[in-house]
Amino acid sequence: MLLRRLLATRQDDAQLSPEIRAALVESLFAPLSSLAVGAIACGIIGAAVAIKANDPAILATSIAIFAVGLLRVVSAVIYKRRKLADDVAATQIWERIYEYGAWGFSALLGLLCYITLTHTTDATLHLAVATTAAGYAAAISGRNAGRPIIAVGQLTLTTLPLAISLLIYPDWLHKALGFVILMFIYGMVDITLSIRDIIIQALTMTRKEAALAARYEEQANRFDIALNNMSHGLCMFDDQDRLKVWNARFIELLNLFDAPIKVGTTIRDLVRYSIRAGNHSGRGVRSIVYELTRGLRQDHHGQVFVSVDGERIMALSRRMMADGGSVVILEDVTERKAAQERIAYLARYDDLTGLPNRNHFRERINEMLEIVREGGNQIALHLIDIDRFKQVNDTLGHPIGDKLLKEVSRRLGSVVRTGDMIARFGGDEFVILQSTPSRRQDSGRLARRLVKALSVPFDVEGHRIDIGASIGIAVAPQDGIDADELIKNADMALYAAKGNGGGEHRFFAAEMEERAQARRALELDLRDALSRNEIEVFYQPLIDLKTGEITTCEALLRWHHPERGYISPAEFVPIAEETGLIISIGEWVLQRACQDAAKWPAGTKVAVNLSPVQFRDRSLGARVVSALAKSGLPAQCLDLEITERVLLEESESTLYTMEQLKVLGVRISLDDFGTGYSSLNYLRKYPFNKIKIDRSFIADLGRDQDAPSIVRAVAGLGNSLNMIVVAEGIETEEQLRQVKEEGCHEGQGYLFGRAMPFDAIMEKLQASPAQRANLVAVA
C-alpha cells in the first residue's frame, strides 16, 4: 500500500508546475541552519562515540559524516546565492545535488549505528547512536516530506541498518527495540506521504489562502499536540464554571470515555458523568459540586489532594485567568504519594521486621533521656545479639534467616510490656528500651525472660532452629545519660555476655570499660608488633610413635611485649582475628615457617595453623604459593592445620579452597578433632591427610573409662580413611603407652618437648638417630 502511494507521488511530481516544483526544492535547502545543526550534531555524536569506543571504523565513519554534512551546508549556501526559480533545468540539478548528499549523509549515519552496535557492547554508546539516528529520521520525515522519495530514502538508509543491528544483537531487549524501529520506519513513511499530500494541497491554493491556512493549521496542530500529549489532565472553565477546553488525559484520569463531554458542559454535569463512571462512591452530586466549586473559587497556588475512586490520589491545582475563568490541572500522584509514604516509613522502621529502626530508636531514647535528666525515672537499654545466627544463614540460606528474624521479633514482642520499645539495629542485633524499671532486678528479670524465650527452638518452614541470645544491659542515669554512651556501655556488657559462651545477660560495670581500654591498647600494640620484631615463631615437634623420629614441627606464635612481657596467643590471636590483623600476621608466619623448614633435614614437615579469617581470604592460595616459592620448600613438606570453626562457615567455598591447596601438593590437617560439630561428616567431605585428637581426650586417659574407647574409635576411623592420627597433649609415659596401643600414628606434647625457638628445634632435628629414638620410650 505504501509502495503504491510512493510510486504514485513520482507520477504526480511530473505534473507539478515549475513554480510548485521550485518551491518544493527550495524547501529542501531551507532553513540553512537545520542542515548545519544536523551536520554538527551528528559529527559530535560520532566523534564522541569513536573516542569512547576507540574503534578505527567508527572514527572513519564519523569523519565521513562530518565531511558530507559540511559539503551539504556548502551546497545549500551556493544554492541560496545562485538559484533561479524559473529555470526548470537548474531546479532539477539542485534537487539531484540535495538528493545524493542527503542519501549519502543518511547512509553514513546508518552505517555508524550498525558498526557501533556490532563492534561494541557499551549500552551508553548504543543509546547515543540510536537516539541520534531516531531523532534525525523523525526530523527529516517532516522536513523533506515535500520530496517523499528523498525523505523515504533518508529514513530507510538511516534507520534500517539500526534496526538490523538491533535485531541481530544477542540481547532480547535490543531485538525488541529493533522490531519497534521497523514499525517506526513504516509509520514515518506513512506520515511523510500524508504530509506530502497536505503540502501539495496547500501549494495548489492561492498564496494568501495557503499562507493563512498553513498558519492556522500549524497553530492548531501544535496546540492540539501539546494539549493531548501532556502527562497532566487539563481543563479550562469560563467565568460561569462551564467547560471550554479539555485534553485526552483529563478524560482518561476521570474515566469519562463514554461521557458526552462537550463545550459548555457544567461542573454539575461533569460530576454526574464521573459518578456514572464509578468515581465518588457513596457520595451525592450536590455535596461534590459544593466542594469543587468552593475549592475552585479559591485561588490555590499549591495542590489539593483528592481521591475520586478510593484508590488513586489526584493532585488538583487551579490558576485564575484575566476574564474570570480558570485553568484546572489534574495529576495522578498515587505512585508518588505511595513512594513518599514508603520512604517516610523506611526512614523510621525496619523493612524486614516492621520494628522501629535505629533512627526511630534515637528519637525515642532522646525523648526519654530528657525526662531522666530532669529527674524522672530511670530507663534500661537491652542490647540483644542472636547466638549462632550466622550458622543459620550459612547452612539454611538468607531467606530462612530473614524469616527467623521475623519470628524473633514477634517472640520479643510477646515478652516485653506495653510501652517498652523494640527496635532492630540491623543484622541479628535488636535493642529493647525498657521504660521506668523501678529496680535493677526488674531489668534482670526481663533479660532472663528474653533469653528463655529465644532459647525455645524455632520452626521455620519445617526446619528446627536452635539459637539463643546474649544481652548487654546499660541503665540510665547510672551508666550514662547520653544515647551514644548508653549504647557503647551496653555493647561492652554484650561483649562480656558473649565472652562467657552466650545465652546469658550481663549488666555494664566500670571494669568492663577498663578491660575494653586495655584490649584497645593491646590491639594498638599488636598492630606494630611485627614491625618491632616482637613476634617470634616457636616450634613443637610431632613424633612418629613407632620410630621416635620427628616427622613434623608445628609453628606456634609467641609475643614478647617490651613492657607486658609474654602475652598468650589465646589473648592476642582473637584480637588479631576480629581486627583482620591475622591476615598480615598469618602471612608472615607462613613465610617464616617455610624459610625455617627449608633448612631442616630433608622430609621434615612444618605445620602452620590457619584461622577462619585467613581461610576466607581469597588470596590464600597465592600466599601459600609465594611462601613455598621464596623458601624453596617442597609443597609436600607444608602441613596446613585448620579447626572445625573453618568448616562451619562456608561449605562450598571452603571445599574449593581446600581442593586448590591439595592441587598444590600441600597437606591439610584437622586440628582439635572432636570438639566441634559434625566431625564425621567433615572427614567424609573434605580432603584431610591428618586428624589431631584434641588434648582434652588424651588428658582423660587413666581418669575416664570412656576416653580410651574414644581414642580407639578415632584412630580406627583415621586408619580406615588412610589418614594419619595424631594424639595431642601427651604429657606422661602412661598416656604415651595408651595412645600407641589404641593405634595413633603420631604424638605431640610436653613429654616430647615444649614449643622452642628455631635454634633449639634445629638442634633436636640434627641429633643422632639414637638420640632421637630416646624421645619415645618403648612401651
UniProtKB/TrEMBL annotation:
Pfam families: EAL, GGDEF, PAS_7. One of its GO terms (biological process) is cellular response to nitric oxide. InterPro entries: Biofilm_reg_signaling, EAL_dom, EAL_sf, GGDEF_dom, Nucleotide_cyclase, PAS-like_dom_sf, Rev_trsase/Diguanyl_cyclase. SUPFAM superfamilies: EAL domain-like, Nucleotide cyclase, PYP-like sensor domain (PAS domain). It catalyses: 3',3'-c-di-GMP + H2O = 5'-phosphoguanylyl(3'->5')guanosine + H(+). Keywords: Membrane, Transmembrane, Transmembrane helix. CDD domains: EAL (cd01948), GGDEF (cd01949). The chain crosses the membrane at residues 28-51, 57-79, 100-117, 149-170, 176-199. GO terms for molecular function: cyclic-guanylate-specific phosphodiesterase activity. Residues 519-769 form the EAL domain. Residues 377-510 form the GGDEF domain. This is EAL domain-containing protein. It comes from Microbaculum marinisediminis.
